[in-house]
Structure formats: C-alpha cells, structure tokens
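Human: Note token order:
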Amino acid sequence: MTRRAEAIAEYVQKHVRTECTQDRTESVTQFTDRLEKAFALLPDEVLESFLRDARLLSVKIMRGRSLPLGMQTRPEGTHDARSYTVILYEEHLQWPDDVFIGAFLRELAHVIAERPPETEWPASRGERARFKERLECRADATVWKWGLKDYSVGYITAIYPKHWVDAILNQIDKMLLEEEGQT
C-alpha cells in the first residue's frame, strides 16, 4: 500500500461513524472501500485539504429508511468554524460503484465549496429552490474541474430522469463557461 493510500485509509477510518450493528460489519467494509476509492480520485491539493483537516468532515452511515434518500451534506457552525457531515444510507451500497463514487464526490465538492447551512439560505421558497439548484450545479462543476466528469455524469444520468439530465448538464457547462470568463 502506498503512503497516499495509507493516509486515505487512516482518514476514512477516523472520520466514518456508523449506526450499523456488528452483524453489518461487511457493509461498513464495503462503504469504507468505496469511500477510499473516491478520496483516491481527488486531486492532491483537494485531498490534502481533507487530510490536514482544513475542511472538517465526518461521514455518517445510517440505517436504511422507508423512503429512498440521496446522500446529504449537513454543514454546522459559523462560516469561520464550519464542519460538515455527509450522511450515507445503507441503500447506497446497492448503487453501482461509479454512481456511488459520483454521488460522494458531489458531496465532497459541497464541503470544498463551503456549502452554507440552510439557516443562511434565502427566505422565500422560490429563492431557496434556485439557491439549492445553484449549490448542486456548483458542486457538479467542481467535480468536473477535478477531472472527474465521468463520475459526475454517471451519477446524474443514473439518478435523474432523462429530460432533467440534459438540462442539468447544460447548466453545469454554462456555469463553467461563466467561471472561465471571469478568470
């Protein structure tokens, strides 16, 4: 095992909490293997921000729910002392590796982009919806900038209906072009 792989394994071991019981040790191992794969894909500078705890992160594995839910990132604390918890559910193990990794990379992008807690979002319902959509698009665009577009597109294609996929991908392209024009 390389030094980088050892550091990732140690980080995942230290930052993953689980509600799973002892009889589910195999599923916890599957989760940690997939999380390690996702972290290993990150560019060095992004990975280092996690390994140095420049971005405070914990990953919580929850028991399955009656309703299927996607992965979630929950920010806590003030802007200068923010921590993040990524919530995963046992059902996510049923996703193919590339879809799982694509979804988790999106959550890591939320952490890197310092997604604010909902208490800091706009007040009106319409503005909140547009704000959330922009946050998701920014996270996807971040994953694309990391050179991991295939994982992002694989996740989006697997999760969203076809008529939304094209609109989402166009929106990400547009955001990247806007950012390019600003630099």
